Amino acid sequence: MIREVELVSYLPAFMQKYKEPRAALEAEDPEFAIAWSGADRILYNHFIATADEYGIARLEKLLGILPAEEDDLESRRMKVQARWVNKIPYTVRVLAEKLETLSKGTDFTIEADFRQAYKMSVHMGLEMVGQVGELERIIDEIVPCNISALTTNHILIGTGGEAYGGGGIAYTDIIEIENQEVQDGEFF
Description:
Layout: H1 19-44, H2 53-63, H3 73-84, H4 92-103, E1 109-113, E2 119-124, H5 131-142, E3 148-153, E4 182-183, E5 186-187
Parallel strand pairs: 2-3
Antiparallel strand pairs: 1-2, 4-5
Helix pairs in contact: 2-3, 3-4, 4-5
């Protein structure tokens, strides 16, 4: 929220005519603009959804997250959000809430068979960089060791356009011409 700073407008009308106070206040306008932008940055960095690179880096340091080189700001924000919402005790409902936060509205399913086989299947459709690694971390953290967890990630790719194919046939003969010397009636 960038604010237009005009300190001269706070002067009474009769004082705005004088050059000295007007010049002094106009000289301070850029300083107040810097102060307002700093205050806005602090406000935006208090929330994960609006934090800039600096704010996300501070939150990553707080949560012990090491970003990968290929992570962009959105994938880093997603990792911070997934770790920030940490509820105990871990139940299937809490796992579903964490996966909902991770998947950002894409569909996923959790199939659980805890009575006989102690198995769980999670089917996701994650597309952003770093989401699969975060899914592995969530599964390792929440699912107990005595439950076998199978996770699959399906990325649907829409294709369009045309594909052309072509081919050709070539016929080749190999003819060898040798220079042979004749000595005493025999070829060498």
